[in-house]
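Your task:
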Amino acid sequence: MLGIARYLAPVCLAMSAVAPCAMAQDFPNRPIRFVVPYQTGGLPDVMARLVAQKVEASTGQPVVVDNRSGASGILAAEYVAKSAPDGYTLFVADIGHFAINPALYHNLSYDPNRDFTPVTTAVHGPLLLVANSGLEANSVPELIALARAHPGKVNYGSPGNGSVHQLAMARLSLQANVKMVHIPYRSTAQAIPALVANDVQVMFVSPPSVNEFVKSGRLKVLGVGSPEPTPLAPGAPAVAASGFPGFNAVTTVGFLAPAGTPAAVVGRLNEEIGRALKAPDVMAKMPGMGVTVVADSPQEFRKLMLADQAYYRTLVEQTGVKVD
């Protein structure tokens, strides 16, 4: 028996090495699932559906968008992390899931680095620092001067504790050494009417959420959260260039596969999703959604994830932001 085992061992080892390659060559041969940790209608959902249509047409296999909202995306992340690492279940994750949650939750049930394999960064877009039109400040320096002259009198809104929107304002307050009062809402859809009504005076939001209010003069843009000015907010100066170097308030969405997914399968997914994102009709829709296409490599997405994790870990430690 020992002699037989000695001869079989190399054969089994060779077969185990060939199996992932064979699976990749045959991939995909059944439906693919994009798990979106939000309800329908938001940026990750709309972007995922645009990509799904293109990937379905390219591969000839159905691509299903599965909306699993709740618990700050933790439920959706758990579901994908526990799925088979075969490329048929992907997590459409944003910066909150792969960078902010690990900084906020000490006993998070998933680890974005251990439990997932990056496929590609899909899109990213800046948040805008927007103010009620009646606020006596027309720039970031004027806002800081106002907040400094009246500590605790300027309120800022957000779609909830621990959101990228709140953390952006917490970072600005920290760097400027001023006190502004955070008023959390259940969603952006609730926070923006409060901003228009002057219940809160400023907040960070995505461009599409406020474009009509800015055009009508009910809101005004003070700055943009990207490191550099962007065509998505013409004429808006970067907050970082207004005396706050290193400031970063950009939302990112990408695709993650369960850890252990074969590299060849990840490569095929990267190719298919990247091609879908770069399709002219898809790219044409992105500015209206407040984002631009990235479509990078798995390695580049991993590097971005690690950088964002370090940024938000430090920010949460410095500001003391907590979730309920």
Summary: The two ends are 61 Å apart (CA to CA). The chain has two domains: 31-125+252-319, 128-242. Confidence is low (pLDDT under 50) at residues 1-9. The CA atoms of residues 96 and 164 lie 7 Å apart.
